[in-house]
Amino acid sequence: MKNFKFLPLSLAVATSLASGAAFASDAEISELEQRIAELEKAVVTLDYTDDQQQSALSSDTEVPLGVIFSGYARYGAHYQSGDNKYVQIGSTGAAVGRLGNEVNGGEFQLGKIFESESGVKWNLAVMLDHWAHSDWGSTDGVNLKKFYAGASNIFESQPDLYVWAGRDFHQRPQQGLNDYFWMTHDGQGGGFTNFDLGAAKFDLAFVGQVASNDGGNAALVNDNGRYAVTSKLHSINAGIGNLDIYANYGFASDEADVEVQDESAWLVGATLGLGDSNKLIMKYGDGADNSVFELAGDKQVFYVSLEGGVNPADQWYIDYLASYKDISGDDVSNESSEYSAIVRPMYNWDDTHSTWLEAGLAQVDYEDDSKQQAWKVTLSQNISLGGLPWSRPMLRFYTTVGDVETKGTGVETTNVDTVSFGAMFEAWW
Prior knowledge:
The chain has helices spanning 2-19, 26-45; strands at residues 68-80, 105-115, 121-130, 142-152, 162-168, 174-175, 180-181, 187-196, 201-212, 219-237, 242-252, 265-273, 278-286, 300-313, 316-328, 336-348, 353-366, 370-384, 394-408, 414-428. The radius of gyration is 26 Å and the shape is globular. By secondary structure, it is mainly beta. It contains two helices and 20 strands. Helix 1 (2-19) packs antiparallel against helix 2 (26-45). 9% of the residues lie in helices and 52% in strands.
């Protein structure tokens, strides 16, 4: 496409040089060629910048020309041969592993960074997402997930303090192998991040949950009456690794559904780095599992997880995750305990080709003495830009097999098997 942009310009210049060759000096021709190069460079700088858009600016953030295009997406065909397309159990995401066990969708963001004469850094971003899926009862497609603005380097004493307002992803720490957002408060409101306390940094925000249309998932422009005050104390050097602490409180206004207007919830959590590539996660919620927007009454949730990876040889990588969750309380219809373990060995043949094998086991024990047990194995042959486990874009050609069994006193014993084949791409940029 670039060659086509410059073709008319090149033809015009060639014609001029041919018709005036007898009169043009070497200096004039050299000057004209330099001007052509400047024009070509100007055309190139009008294109978008494909750097990852930051969610918060620091005082030393570079200000690129043009619009920043960033996002995440995965799309492909997933052929079902068994009883169910995916192996689904429990409430911790893809509890038996996400490889070959996840639906299509994507998030597409355009952003722009500005700098004022005084040195204040501004950014503006808008994101559309596409996660509607028939299995989730979604009746709508594309949503406006983000539209926010923010600024840093506002105060001389706190150059990296970032103040924001609008609609944004908010406080959504995620685990990789099970694709589990163990805390999420996406919404619209405002706050600040990276207030420097010396030994730690502090984030604080007030957000409202975005309303949706009845029976669908389309995000409306108003709040639904459920609100959260969120906080995070992070970047704490705990000796063995980095420590982050979360504390959140949820409540409702008179605009909320009547049954939750008098409810409140709180949710605390922490992540602790264990060396270079391992992490311990813990959370406890009262009236909440993953979000204080839930306002779930007498419901208590405890969750702990250990995840990480090892690199036993140059071309071998092994990622793992183990987790436990307990859900109890008078407003829980059937109290439960959930267990999950996932391992993913990966072999990189070169900087393009890799082979992954992911295996997962999960179990849910219910108060009524029933239980669910599940397993999944996926073999995937990959082509990627870089050949490393985190290299993207990636093309995957995979086969998944698995099973979910339900049994127990007073419960009909059932087996739901999964046999599927697929081809997909995954990318973040």
